[in-house]
Amino acid sequence: MKESKQVQNEQVVEQEIELQQEVQLDTLSEEAGESQSDEKPKRKPKIDKEKESLKETVKQLEERVQTLQSEKEVKSEQAKKLSEKEKELFQKEVKLTLKEYGLFEFEEIIKVDDSDELQEVVKKLSKIMADKKIENSFKPNGHKQQDAYSVAKSKGDNVGMIKALMGFK
Asked: In this prediction, what percent of the chain has a pLDDT beyond 90?
């Protein structure tokens, strides 16, 4: 649609230039041609009508150009506002996604441009956090479960040791 408007504008400018050249030729021929005074009265009303119609056409075209320029400015402003809203919306999406996966602490660190990149970063961070959680969890060191025999032996209870071996409690 923009291309068709540009083509129309170019055609209008070309027509305007042609009209200006015709008007200049007419004025030059009027100034230079006093010998053609008998033809002049016949052509003058026709030329005047053409000039008036051309002036009206030029005036309409100038108004159209101004209208198109103002529309273009309005559309560019709207495009800027839309772009800003898209950025805000994406930032909210980033915040919600990070909160959903429990990674909201990384909000200020993560800088992504699209949803696919965001998903990749979230997967990597989730894997790292899960690995760290496992590494930092409680790991008993050198702890064996004691049976009744070991407990009785450590206490020096011979009867308890025999009962543990025989299966009595």
From this structure: 26
In angstroms, the CA 164 to CA 151 distance is 10
DSSP-derived letter for residue 102 is: T
DSSP per-residue letters across 17-51: HHHHHHHHHHHHHHHH-STTTTTHHHHHHHHHHHH
Contact, 117 vs 91, CB < 8 A? no
How far apart, in Å, do the first and last CA atoms of the chain sit? 93
Which residues does 68 contact at the CB level (< 8 Å), separation at least 6? Answer: 5, 9
User: Are the beta carbons of 164 and 149 closer than 8 angstroms?
Assistant: yes
d(CA 83, CA 71): 18
Query: What is the per-residue pLDDT across 49-99, written as a single tens digit (0 to 9) for each?
Result: 888 888 899 999 999 999 999 888 888 899 999 999 999 999 999 999 999
Residue 123 or 30, more confident: 123
Q: How many Cβ atoms are within 10 Å of 136's Cβ, its own excluded?
A: 8
pTM for the predicted model, two decimal places:
0.45
